[in-house]
Amino acid sequence: MTNRLLVPVSDSGTLRQTVAHAVETAVEAEPVDESAATIHFVVALSRAQPVDADEPPGELLDRVAVWAAEDRGDADLSIETALIGSAEYLFSPDDYADVLAEYAADAGLDHAIFDPGYNPFGTAPLLPPLERELERRAIVAETAPVQRDRRFPSLVERGTVFQALALGAVAFGFYLLLAGSVAPFELVTGAITASVVATALWGVSLTAPVRPGRDVVRVARLLVYVPYLLAQIAVANLQIAYVVLHPDLPIDPEMVEFDAAVWSPLAATTLANSITLTPGTLTVDVSRRTFTVHTLTTTARDDLFDGGLERAVRFVFYGRSAARGAGPAEREEVQE
User: Fold this and answer.
1) How many CB atoms sit inside 10 A of residue 208's CB?
2) Could you give the C-alpha distances from 121 to 32, 47, 49, 91, 178, in angstroms and in order?
3) How far is Cα 41 from Cα 38, in angstroms, rounded to an integer?
4) Positive or negative CA dihedral for 156, 161, 164, 170?
C-alpha cells in the first residue's frame, strides 16, 4: 500500500472509522519515493445534487480534516481536502470514476480507500461499481475494513478489555472521591463496586473504542482547559456584576443560534455546559451542531460569537490545529 491516498468521503455512520483507518494506513505504509505521506480527502458533488443545508460539503471536509489531524498525532502526514465535480452532472459510477481519476492523476495518486457507507448521491448503491470503474482506470481501490452501520443499532455494543478497565477506573476514582478517604475499607469496597459497574455496563456506557494514548492526551488538554474556563467565568461574573450595579441596568436579552464546529456528542455537551456555566449565557437547546443560547448582554453575545470557548473545546478534543479555526461570527454561522 502506498503512503499517498485518495479518500472520497460522504456523510455516513462509518466515516469516522474510515478516516482513522486511512491515517493509520498512510502513516504505516512504506514510502514509494521521497515524498511525504499524504491523504487527499475529496467530496465529489454533482451539479445535479442538492447541497445539504445542515452541513455543506466544505464543513464535512473541515470535520474530516480535524479528525485526520487528531489521528495523525506527531506523524509526518500531509492532509489535503478538495471539492470536485461540482460543475458537472454526475449520474453513474462511470461519471464519478472520471472525476476521481482526473483528480488522482493531477495529484499523483494511484490508491483509493472508500468508506463502506460511501454514497454521495444518496440513491442506489454506488460503491461496488465505482471501485470496478476505478480499477479500470489503473487506480487501486479498496473498502476500509470498518464495522458497517446497523439499520437499527442496538443499545449494547460488544465491549473490549480496555473499555472495561477504563470504566472500572473511572467508577473506582468516583467512589473514592465520594468517600473522601483512601482507607483500606474504602479501597476494597470501591474495587468491588467498580468491578460490578464495569462488568454490568461496559457495553452500554462506552460504545466507542478506548484509545489510551489519545484519551490521556485529551485529559491533559482538559486540565489546561479548566483554568481557562474558570478565568472566563470570573471575567463574565465581573461583567454581569457591573451590569447589575449600573443605574441604567444596561441589559439586552436576546435568543440567538449559531453552528459550532464540534462533531461529537461529548464535545458538544462540553461546549454547551461551558456556555451555561459562563454568566450571561445559557444554552437552551442543541440540535446536531446548532446551539440555541439565551444571552443577557451585547458583550456576552460578542464573546460567544467570537468563539473563544468553542476553540478551547476544539483544542481539548481535536488538538492545537483545530483550536486555530475561525469562530462562528467569522464563519458567518450566526443567526440572531
Assistant:
1) 12
2) 34, 11, 7, 8, 52
3) 10
4) negative
What is the rounded distance in angstroms from the CA atom of residue 55 to the CA atom of residue 62?
Answer: 10
Residue-wise DSSP of 31-74: PSSSSPEEEEEEEE--TTSPP-SSS-HHHHHHHHHHHHHHHHTT
CA separation, residue 259 to residues 54, 105, 331 (Å): 9, 36, 9
Can you identify the CATH homologous superfamily of domain 4-143? HUPs (3.40.50.620)
172 to 19, 190, 192, 205, 210: CA distances (angstroms): 33, 5, 9, 15, 17
Tell me the C-alpha distance between 180 and 175, whole Å. 9
Contact 2, 32 (CB under 8 A): yes
DSSP state of 264: S
| DSSP H or E segment with residue 8 | strand 4-8
3-state secondary structure of 251: coil
Total residue count of the chain as it appears in this document? 336
Asked if 137 contacts 101 with a C-beta cutoff of 8 angstroms, the reply is: yes
pTM over 0.70? The answer is no
Task: For the chain, give the longest Cα–Cα distance.
Answer: 76
Alpha carbon 114 to its chain's center: 19
User: Among the listed ranges 19-28, 103-112, 280-289, 319-328, which one has the minimum average pLDDT value?
Assistant: 319-328
With CA atoms as reference, report the closest residue to 207 among 268, 271, 273, 266. Answer: 266
Q: Which pLDDT score, from 0 to 100, does residue 19 have? A: 92
Residue ranges covered by each domain of the chain: 4-143, 161-205, 212-335
